[in-house]
Amino acid sequence: MGSSSPSSVSSVLLSFLCFFLYVLDLSNAQSSSPVFACDVAANPSLAAYGFCNTVLKIEYRVADLVARLTLQEKIGFLVSKANGVTRLGIPTYEWWSEALHGVSYVGPGTHFSGQVPGATSFPQVILTAASFNVSLFQAIGKVVSTEARAMYNVGLAGLTYWSPNVNIFRDPRWGRGQETPGEDPLLASKYASGYVKGLQETDGGDPNRLKVAACCKHYTAYDVDNWKGVERYSFNAVVTQQDMDDTYQPPFKSCVVDGNVASVMCSYNQVNGKPTCADPDLLSGVIRGEWKLNGYIVSDCDSVDVLYKNQHYTKTPAEAAAVSILAGLDLNCGSFLGQHTEEAVKAGLVNVTAIDKAITNNFLTLMRLGFFDGDPKKLMYGGLGPKDVCTTSNQELAAEAARQGIVLLKNNGCLPLSPTSTKTLAVIGPNANVTKTMIGNYEGTPCKYTTPLQGLAGTVSTTYLPGCSNVACAVADIAGATKLAATADVTVLVIGADQSIEAESRDRVDLNLPGQQSKLVTEVAKAAKGPVLLVIMSGGGFDITFAKNDPKIAGILWVGYPGEAGGIAIADVIFGRYNPSGRLPMTWYPQSYVEKVPMTNMNMRPDKANDYPGRSYRFYAGETIYAFGDGLSYTKFSHTLVKAPHLVSLRLEENHVCRSSECQSLDAIGPHCENAVSGGGSAFEVQIKVRNGGEREGIHTVFLFTTPPDVHGSPRKHLLGFEKVRLGKMEEAVVRFKVAVCKDLSVVDEVGKRKIGLGKHLLHVGDLKHSLSIRI
């Protein structure tokens, strides 16, 4: 054979490459169809089955399907990789997909390809929560579900998403606090129902139809992953009924009652000696009984296996299968129920009726999603596809969410920077030019990244040095960093954490900045020619007392894990294109707090006898680095009380026990609650005039707190409501709160009942305080 010229070799390679791409495109096209049942067009005989008849009520269709299945087939629908039944035209379905803050590649139900290489990656939840903007929570959910449906239509995603995480961020060391909406039950509840509605609600508004199915997790009192050898798989959370009902349960209740969520996931841990996935009181009793869940209960992955193997709660795998199903579990993430349920039936530990009940709940959810309605491309969301993922407007919402969440913690007047007078900017720190760090965990491939460095360099001339090779910062390049800072007009230090510091299965042991980060910050501040700005990227808080008190550090921003557009948002805030309005959704404690408080103590309330200080702004009265709700603006807002009652009289029935004896509190239900306010009715209005007294437009979060009478171990204060208001310079507006007397002003007593304290209640808005008396 003669030798070929370079040009002919190139043309052969080019032809081969074109052919390869053509084949790849064909394979993409072949895999680009969604998974669905009742494909009557391909198999007309399926039209005879009742479960494929879309005219019938969903309940009848599900009953028809369950009646056609053998025991083995039924058991196949108890697990997350649900076996198909070819004879009935039902394909295999993978239940496990995730969408914590964007469509995720975690979980086998979803993946990215050449067709859809990425999806919009919003800020990690803790930063979105800092916006205190319920309409934003819902808007993000709506975008995520649209992108999920678009990916489903080309065979890249499922319809069931095991998000959001609505656990309370109880301890600052928790590695998964970043996934949650923070420490406050009201904020967590509002986030939970808002995000769920955004994910689930269809454009038609039918509550029995689902765009995608959300899942609130991890039920319940789950917030220890791996701390000093204590692991979530064996941890027994000892929780009082009072803490359960006023702290841990409210976000889950809101998911189900207010959000109409399609699923709740039970957790790995035990609560008071019982695995949550095998506790009939928690599952059948509360979720399905009291709250009336319209959907299915799923286990955390392999948690039925965990309660048998790690917790030794049952003697055999068959007993573990039976006790979980009988408790109210419908679906097992993993394969355990698929392997051991038939044995449990044969041993008489569980009957087929209980299995029918479980798979009925699963099928009802799939029916509501349209899974049994034939080709999805002919249904409501059939027109969605790759063009609807990573749209310009979706990516702008990701940037806007980050802007709204960023919290300004310190400003000595240096911020915002002037883009014209700032000639040189030194950007230093291990998180200054990161990409993946910005999207936290339970992430997906983003549309694109804008790093902090890229965002800042887009505005002014910058020089850059990482300062440390990673956030662990075992060795810091102090000499290089100080040299850079000494020549710049302004220095921005971007520091903090990433998933190597705080993550699932990784709790922190202290609240100090990792490695030599503190030294890097201090030395740079000493050497800097101009002001130093500290940007902290993290889920949890740090003890940064040294920086708070350092006069050379002119400003401090907490930016959470700000998502794919983090750099855009950080630059917009620093250069004043956006006036910061985020507020901390959790307390930042000093290091001394975690030195004395074990992470495993679940008690929210202080215990003076044992020198236990309590947890969260609601119960902890000690020193903080920054408090819940802290956050500054570039303008100045003031509050004036316009309207609020001084007295609320509760009218008791003639034979009420408190008419003849002195009571400190009353039940927060009953006729006295219905006519609590003068003129009749159960609520009153608080009106607050908010004034922007500064020279620039700003958005302000108005918090309404209350301090109840000191009865039943009541909170020092707790959040009744929050509202966002946008005001131009020197503009004012009236913000209104509707306060339901018995719902909003009550507290949970020692046995979990809601009581309304008699006597003085103090309402707080900023520095404003208003005394209100409740009497009989």
UniProtKB/TrEMBL annotation:
<feature type="domain" description="Fibronectin type III-like">
    <location>
        <begin position="700"/>
        <end position="769"/>
    </location>
</feature>
<protein>
    <submittedName>
        <fullName>Beta-D-xylosidase 4-like</fullName>
    </submittedName>
</protein>
<dbReference type="InterPro" id="IPR002772">
    <property type="entry name" value="Glyco_hydro_3_C"/>
</dbReference>
<dbReference type="Pfam" id="PF14310">
    <property type="entry name" value="Fn3-like"/>
</dbReference>
<dbReference type="InterPro" id="IPR001764">
    <property type="entry name" value="Glyco_hydro_3_N"/>
</dbReference>
<dbReference type="InterPro" id="IPR036962">
    <property type="entry name" value="Glyco_hydro_3_N_sf"/>
</dbReference>
<keyword id="KW-0378">Hydrolase</keyword>
<dbReference type="InterPro" id="IPR017853">
    <property type="entry name" value="GH"/>
</dbReference>
<dbReference type="Pfam" id="PF01915">
    <property type="entry name" value="Glyco_hydro_3_C"/>
</dbReference>
<dbReference type="InterPro" id="IPR026891">
    <property type="entry name" value="Fn3-like"/>
</dbReference>
<dbReference type="InterPro" id="IPR036881">
    <property type="entry name" value="Glyco_hydro_3_C_sf"/>
</dbReference>
<dbReference type="Pfam" id="PF00933">
    <property type="entry name" value="Glyco_hydro_3"/>
</dbReference>
<feature type="signal peptide">
    <location>
        <begin position="1"/>
        <end position="29"/>
    </location>
</feature>
<keyword id="KW-0732">Signal</keyword>
<dbReference type="InterPro" id="IPR044993">
    <property type="entry name" value="BXL"/>
</dbReference>
<dbReference type="InterPro" id="IPR013783">
    <property type="entry name" value="Ig-like_fold"/>
</dbReference>
<keyword id="KW-0326">Glycosidase</keyword>
